[in-house]
């Protein structure tokens, strides 16, 4: 398996999703707090795909 660094856009989108999920867990935010786990999970999955797929 050949791993590569994700593009900066992919990294920043994953970072924003993760931070929103963590903030939604600790602070009551409309819409985000109910889906905080999914924000973090999708951010992590996006980051893993960015590492595994060279064009993402």
Notes on the protein architecture:
The chain is mainly α and 56 residues long. The protein has one domain. It has helices at 8-26, 36-52. It is elongated and about 40 Å long. It starts with 7 loop residues before the first helix and ends with a helix.
SSE series:
HH
Poorly predicted segments: none
Instruction: State the helical fraction.
Output: 55-70%
Distance between the termini: 16 Å
> Tally of extended strands?
0
Helix count, DSSP H or I runs of 4 or more residues: 2
Choose one word for the global shape: elongated
Task: Reconstruct the topology from this structure.
Layout: H1 8-26, H2 36-52
Helix pairs in contact: 1-2
Task: State the gist of this model.
This protein has 56 residues and is mostly helical. Helix content is 64%, strand content 0%. The protein contains 2 helices and no strands.
What descriptors fit this protein?
2 helices; 56 residues; mainly alpha
């Amino acid at each position: 398996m050949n791993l590569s660094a994700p593009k900066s856009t992919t990294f920043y989108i994953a970072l924003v999703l993760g931070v929103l999920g963590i903030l939604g867990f600790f602070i009551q935010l409309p819409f985000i707090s109910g889906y905080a786990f999914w924000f973090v999970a999708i951010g992590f999955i996006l980051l893993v795909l960015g590492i595994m797929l060279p064009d993402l």
